[in-house]
Amino acid sequence: NAKRRGQGHFVLYSVEMEKAAKTATRIEQALRRAIAADEVEPYFQPIVDLDSRRIIGFEALARWTDPEIGVVMPATFIPIAEERGFISQLAQKVLRKAILAARDWPDDVYLSFNLSPSQLVDQQTVSQIKGILASTGFDPRRLEIELTETGLMTDPRSAAKIIEELRDHGMRIALDDFGTGQSSLGRLRDFRFDKLKIDRSFVSSMLEDQPSEHIVRAIVALCEGLRLGVIAEGIEQEEQAQLLMSLGCSEGQGYLFGAPIDASAALLLVHAQDKALSA
Ligand code: C2E
Ligand code: MG
Ligand code: MG
Ligand code: MG
């Protein structure tokens, strides 16, 4: 009986796995076509100075709508491009488009771009990014590169080398989703970052949950001591922004200040801000 039930489970499991693999393959094919047709677009989410609420940067976030499948979110398609070996093609196209959009912003507004784990084991990543910067004439000091702790772990030496080369070229490195995943404080000693991004999970619960507030407080203090910039992600309420400011967090990002928007809307937004400030 137990054996039969076991077999039944095995059959069910493998059917589920087969379905997942089929879906991934369908997405892979559609995504490869969309990349070739240049249909994956960067959207831009504002990053603000919490005191003045001025937009000081935008994070580029990939967006893709397939004519048949519909909207596919990056949490679904980025891992597929990673696992199936074409993330660098996707990333280069999206970075180039993001930079072309960012060139029209005021010089003091930066662009932040996410690197995937597999790009941190690929030594071609640096020359690809440098090539895009050179061909677009974009100042590397206006480009921030976000990476995650998971991405550092596959091959820490390769990641460290890539980080150093990007920094030597003038880019800043931000550690994304800090405090989740495979967090280790040793990482802050072994790699040179310019900024930590406090994960949304702490920010969204910090008003109700004492431990979350204490963790945020500790991360901000850590950044102060290590002379790192700090940014809180996923701010949705004014009370969260107020608490973060009182803790000394300088930069923020979240739906309170704006969701990701397309290039033309982002351009309108920074221009409106400049007009309001000079009026
Ligand atoms: P991430 O880099 O941590 O980006 C922040 C995510 O949180 C984005 O989701 C953003 O839309 C969402 N978000 C921002 N503010 C709020 C808020 O106030 N509340 C809530 N609930 N969510 C908020 P998105 O665009 O779906 O991207 C998910 C992840 O996919 C990103 O997480 C990043 O890891 C990855 N990703 C997106 N675009 C790219 C890309 O071009 N390249 C790579 N390698 N990864 C990307
Ligand atoms: Mg990010
Ligand atoms: Mg993040
Ligand atoms: Mg995140």
TrEMBL record:
This is GGDEF-domain containing protein. Residues 24-274 form the EAL domain. It comes from Nitratireductor aestuarii. The chain holds residues 176 to 454 of 454 of the full protein. One of its GO terms (molecular function) is cyclic-guanylate-specific phosphodiesterase activity. It comes from the Bacteria.
